[in-house]
Q: What sequence folds into this?
């Protein structure tokens, strides 16, 4: 695995070396002896521009080394050339990094790009829509927030923590609209997810105070 990662990391330069050797062999011995080197060089360059180095992101992501993740992303010179599902993942990660820095404008731009490309898995697209919905709510645009979060729920959300966040957000939206029956139903669904993280549990407890005081 480490050897494969090294190949990916230096694939561009190794491909140039392979092509340079192919030209030398072509001049000295003819085309056919150099064919394999040409082929390796072209495949390497094509995979560098069309697939990119995103495979290298997994290890630093698991270690929480966001600086290294950002460095790998910056090594993608032409994101527009990436194969569509890879490009979608690229912009999703860019959006997540921007959110961590609380740069919500950049995060929204990147996540919208990812969403427009579509995700390889519906759950990934659902998570993307949920993030866009949360950002819209932070900006006070509840109508746009509701639209995105409904789309996220429809597409499916992979983990129960995020699903609970989606339902509790919908509950807050409908409380604001004074549609209390719908608000209670979303609150019930949020609790049914049985989230474990303290942040989500605290959010549910805070909303519960208002639920108990709602008319009807």
A:
């Amino acid at each position: 695995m480490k050897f494969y990662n090294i190949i990916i990391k230096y694939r561009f330069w190794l491909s140039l070396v392979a092509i340079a050797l192919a030209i030398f062999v072509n001049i000295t011995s003819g085309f056919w002896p150099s064919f394999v080197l040409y082929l390796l060089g072209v495949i390497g360059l094509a995979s560098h521009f069309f697939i990119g180095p995103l495979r290298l992101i997994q290890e630093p992501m698991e270690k929480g080394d966001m600086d290294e993740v950002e460095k790998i992303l910056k090594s993608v010179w032409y994101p527009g050339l990436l194969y569509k599902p890879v490009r979608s993942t690229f912009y999703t990660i860019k959006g997540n990094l921007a959110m961590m820095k609380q740069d919500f404008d950049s995060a929204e731009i990147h996540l919208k790009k990812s969403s427009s490309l579509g995700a390889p898995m519906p759950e990934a697209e659902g998570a993307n829509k949920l993030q866009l919905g949360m950002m819209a709510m932070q900006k006070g645009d509840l109508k746009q927030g509701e639209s995105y979060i409904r789309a996220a729920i429809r597409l499916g959300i992979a983990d129960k923590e995020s699903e609970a966040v989606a339902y509790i957000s919908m509950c807050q939206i409908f409380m604001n609209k004074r549609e209390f029956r719908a608000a209670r139903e979303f609150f019930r669904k949020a609790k049914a997810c049985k989230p474990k993280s303290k942040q989500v549990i605290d959010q549910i407890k805070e909303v519960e105070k208002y639920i108990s005081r709602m008319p009807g």
User: Anything to note?
Assistant: The chain has a mean pLDDT of 90. The chain has three domains: 1-50, 59-158, 159-216. The domain at 59-158 is CATH 1.25.40 (Serine Threonine Protein Phosphatase 5, Tetratricopeptide repeat). The two ends are 60 Å apart (CA to CA).
